[in-house]
Amino acid sequence: MYAIVRTGGKQYQVAAGDRLKVEKLEGEVGETVELSDVLLVADGENVTIGAPIVDGAKIVAKIVEQGRDKKVLVFKKKRRKNYQVLRGHRQPFTALSIEQIMQ
């Protein structure tokens, strides 16, 4: 059984037992989170597609980690103008462990 869920503006294919790294969600490590924007649920031959979401479907996940990703460097330069800028950015993330897919 697997599902496609939308969180943080992105879509992820998940199954029970998967570990997933998503945009930052509120909550402490060890808490349970419910994701309700389920776009598709597939259980063997039975496939339910939402319009746009599947009614009554939700995904129960446990927060494993709250952290910040690796640094991304952004370098800008304009030739012959003596202009260069180097900036860094670390995006916050939440690591989830998928516990259960409810339909």
Description:
The protein is mainly beta and 103 residues long. The protein has one domain. Helices cover 0% and strands 65% of the residues. The protein is built from no helices and ten strands. It has strands at residues 2-7, 10-15, 19-23, 32-35, 38-43, 46-49, 58-68, 72-78, 83-89, 92-102. A four-stranded antiparallel sheet has the order 2-1-5-6, with no helix packed on it. The protein has a four-stranded antiparallel sheet with strand order 3-10-7-4, with no helix packed on it. It has a two-stranded antiparallel sheet with strand order 8-9. Strand 1 and strand 2 (10-15) form a beta hairpin. The chain is elongated and about 60 Å long. The N and C termini lie close together (11 Å).
Mean pLDDT: 96
Total discrete domains = 1
- Percent helix, as a range, is under 10%
Quaternary organisation: single chain
Gross morphology: elongated
Q: Count of helical segments?
A: 0
Ranges where pLDDT stays below 50 over 5 or more residues in a row are: none
The N- to C-terminal Cα distance equals 11 Å
Main sheet properties: 4 strands, antiparallel
Class based on secondary structure composition and strand pairing: mainly beta
Q: Report the radius of gyration as a whole number of Å.
A: 19 Å
Strand ordering within the main sheet: 2-1-5-6
Q: What is the count of β-strands?
A: 10
- How do the SSEs run, as a string of H and E? EEEEEEEEEE
How much of the sequence lies in strands comes to: over 45%
